[in-house]
Amino acid sequence: MKVLVIGPGGREHAIVRSLLKDPNVSEVHSAPGNAGIAKLVPTYAIDGNDPAAVTALATKLAVDLVVVGPEAPLAAGVSDAVREAGIPVFGPSKAAAQLEASKAFAKEVMAEAGVPTAMARVATNAEEAADALDTFGAPHVVKDDGLAAGKGVVVTNNREEALAHAQTCFDAGGSVVIEEYLDGPEVSLFVLCDGRTTVPLSPAQDFKRIYDNDEGPNTGGMGAYTPLDWAPEGLVQEVIDRVAQPTVDEMASRGTPFVGVLYCGLALTSRGTRVIEFNARFGDPETQAVLARLKTPLGALMLAAAKGELDQAEELRWSKDSAVAVVVAAENYPDTPRTGDRIRGLNKVDALEGVHVIHAGTKLDEEGRIISAGGRVLAVVALGTDLVEARERAYDGVELVQLDGGQFRTDIAGKAARGEIHVSSTATGSIPNVKA
């Protein structure tokens, strides 16, 4: 089959790479892609957020499946337009993508479905925000209600900082969701959905803040690893039973079936597993690590989801290896990243055993050289027999990347590799069977 992948980032490069390994896939195309994707498949310089442009390209290429990677085209209704043209799509409709596009909507769905999550209030002005902050106390969690590329959340003990973030959102015409703080380690679980059936992938953990030891502002993600040997036994099934399936059932009952990936961002708290947030697509950079271990053909899985046939899909098979992805970001990320810098050393990285480079914010200059074109420039992904070996290989690769001003965290998967992550004995198995 022919597949068109929409998106410009690392997640899409990882998806393209996996699709090319699927014997069922004869052709892969990408729009707009990046420098790394362009080395593998044909790319097209269209606006991936434009439903008409994507539909026209998919029709012209006569593809059998369109995979929508990022959140923005989903929120713009790209999936709806392509489906109306009769082409199967892996990615939720605009209505279903509200699970990510509006945190207030997601809270409403979770409440109806009885999904355990943080207590929260929606605020539309400074007075409401101040009242909510005082109700929940510190640490304060303030989330922009709309899409913010992973950077719309502030977690702080400083009440004035929390109020300032809320005011910034109000000034932009938006609202905020203010929540109680959730303690405990975080887990990302991707769940493939076809509107009815749910199939979980391997859990991962990502690192959202820019600096080591989880310091500094939030980013789109600075690294990830999988599997999670420290996660409680039965966690994945618990999340399917209490989180993903009830959410998919609720969305179906509303007439807006969810097709694609439901990203469950979880906290394993002292009071049980809680949902931090939903996303309506694969997470980045967790995708880079998770797909590196997936042995089941990805194209067949995505087509089954798009056609409502996941219940007939083969059982997932995984490599026994561990995977670590370390992001190299541009200077001044996540504020206003510097772009246009030459990137060297990538061939040396790819030559390392068990290591490959996933491009994110890259493009080719007029002379065909790879230069930086975004905040998160690339990820070095490594497989190893355990996390220790995978980490060593990943950082060996990172050291070979030459990018002026490039920055990366040195502690990705470090605590897990040293056995330093501990989960409360009540982190699972204690989810209340009541509406949150």
UniProtKB/TrEMBL annotation:
Gene3D superfamilies: 3.40.50.20, ATP-grasp fold, A domain, ATP-grasp fold, B domain, Phosphoribosylglycinamide synthetase, C-terminal domain. It is an enzyme of class 6 (ligase). GO terms for biological process: 'de novo' IMP biosynthetic process; purine nucleobase biosynthetic process. Keywords: ATP-binding, Ligase, Nucleotide-binding, Purine biosynthesis. Belongs to the GARS family. PANTHER family: PHOSPHORIBOSYLAMINE--GLYCINE LIGASE, PHOSPHORIBOSYLAMINE--GLYCINE LIGASE, CHLOROPLASTIC. NCBIfam families: purD (TIGR00877). This is Phosphoribosylamine--glycine ligase. It comes from Arthrobacter terricola.
